[in-house]
Amino acid sequence: MKQLFFWFGTLIILNSCVVQGLTNDFGKLNDSEKALIHDFEGFSEVESRAIYEINGKALREELKNHPKSIVYKLSNGCPSEYCKPLQLYENFAKEHDYHLFMVMIGYANLYETMEQPFSSPLYAIDTDYYETSISYKYNRYFDNDFMGLETKAKQGEYAGSLYFFEGDSLVEVRRELPEELNSQD
After folding, report:
1. Is the Cα dihedral 134, 129, 116, 81 positive or negative?
2. Which residues pair with 97 in a beta bridge?
3. Residue 139 pLDDT > 50
């Protein structure tokens, strides 16, 4: 009987748990959050603070149109010391003549991102394009595509979430913006 109560209690506790990050968490968005997501019809058609699902190959093609770009892969509500307010990335890009692409790795905690002041469009990884909703897989495929690697290639050690490009050539990957910005905090 004690075991029955234990398993019943465990089941109730686990049933009320919400696990985030295993998938893109689109299904956990409310209707007003889903309304922020628009069909992607090309980079020239994007609007401020709207969200567009894209794939890495489309992003790589767009990188060719800009002398210098930063791709920032962000996690909504990230508590890490490496995650800064979006406006800091926008200011850095503007001050240093970079085109900024802010790509969300999933939809969990979207409200925390949308509460911030920023004016750039946001992008999310198109999981339908990659035919998987498993986070680590679609993130790897997306990264490989926008870096010009074979889509399903294995990756090495995590280097950061800020990708600096000249045209479509990757220059460096960083965890933080260069020091000239960090000293302004």
Report:
1. positive
2. none
3. yes
Q: Please tell me the distance from the alpha carbon of residue 112 to that of residue 94, in angstroms, as a whole number.
A: 23
Check pLDDT > 80 for residue 29: yes
The number of residues making up the chain comes to: 185
State the Cα–Cα distance between residues 101 and 90, nearest whole angstrom: 9
Assess contact for 130 and 47: CB atoms under 8 A: no
H or E stretch covering 93: helix 86-95
Q: Which domains are assigned to the chain?
A: 21-182 (3.40.30)
- Neighbour-count burial for 75-90, b at 16+ CB within 10 Å, e otherwise: bbeeeeeebbebeebb
Question: 10 Å Cβ neighbour count for 31?
Answer: 6
How far is residue 163's CA from residue 143's CA, in Å, rounded to a whole number? 10
**Cα(137)–Cα(87) distance, integer angstroms:** 29
Q: Is the pLDDT of residue 118 over 60?
A: yes
Q: What pLDDT was estimated at residue 76?
A: 96
Has residue 184 got a pLDDT over 90?
A: no
